[in-house]
Amino acid sequence: MPGQFARTELLLGVKALDKLAKSRVIVFGIGGVGGYAVEALVRSGIGEIDIVDNDRVSVSNLNRQIIATQKTIGQYKVDAAKERILDINPDIIVHTHNIFYSPETSSEFDFSKYDYIVDAIDTVSGKLSLIEKAKEYNVPIICAMGAGNKLDASKFEVADISKTSVCPLARVIRNELKKKNIRNVKVVYSKEPPIKQTDNTGQTGKKPIPGSTAFVPGAAGLILAGEVVKDLIHET
Q: Phi/psi of residue 62, each to 5°?
């Protein structure tokens, strides 16, 4: 009977699968984008994965987050994700971190342990901190830029942060990294201008809640995972 990763082996080969099985990846944020990144990494044969998020699954997550079902509502996202991960591959090693990542909580992580860092969090300060840690420990990182208020999944591109355009979040990150003299950061971003929301009911605070769909965040997450897999197997 063919093995679980037989179809992947046909494309990547035995050596590449062995490399993935020996790799440890950490994913910060396992919502609409990060959840799909985790899904694809696990199905690609990553041997060890860390998932970081302090949120619980809510009803509003059902429209776009792969771990969100009627069954998982109310569960911590890392717990729901771990159960799903082990249902896919019981042999994978899973580390859960029920914590909100920020510069203040960065000391909770030993970045030297990881072969790759995936940034799928929302805050600018958190993203900048992850990039700084990645550079400090010489660990490759890929960062997701804005996926909210967008409808065209085909507009995503992979680029160095210095080459990005249109995306408001990418602009902020690009400018902050320039101030810090940090270069060579791979990102997934969309050239689609943010769409004006048709309704703002139910929103609280000064900053509007971004609208989102079932397909745009997931597309970004799958692209993130694909880049991680390609980089790991081509690493010298």
A: -65, -25
Q: What is the pLDDT of residues 179-201, one digit of tens each?
A: 999 999 999 999 999 998 776 55
Summarize pLDDT for 130-177 with one digit per residue, the tens. 999 999 999 999 999 999 999 999 999 999 999 999 999 999 999 999
Average pLDDT, the chain: 95
Is 61 domain-assigned? Answer: yes
Closest by CA to 223, choosing from 194, 195, 187, 173, is: 187
* Domain extent at residue 183: 6-234
The single-letter code of the amino acid at 40 is A
Q: Answer whether 128's CB lies under 8 Å from 174's CB.
A: no
Q: How far is CA 165 from CA 132, 171, 216, in A?
A: 22, 7, 18
Residue 154 lies in a domain: yes
Sign, CA dihedral 100-80-170-150, equals: negative
Predicted confidence at residue 193, as pLDDT, reads 94
To the nearest 10°, report the CA torsion of 53, 74, 84, 62: -90
Number of domains the chain is built from: 1
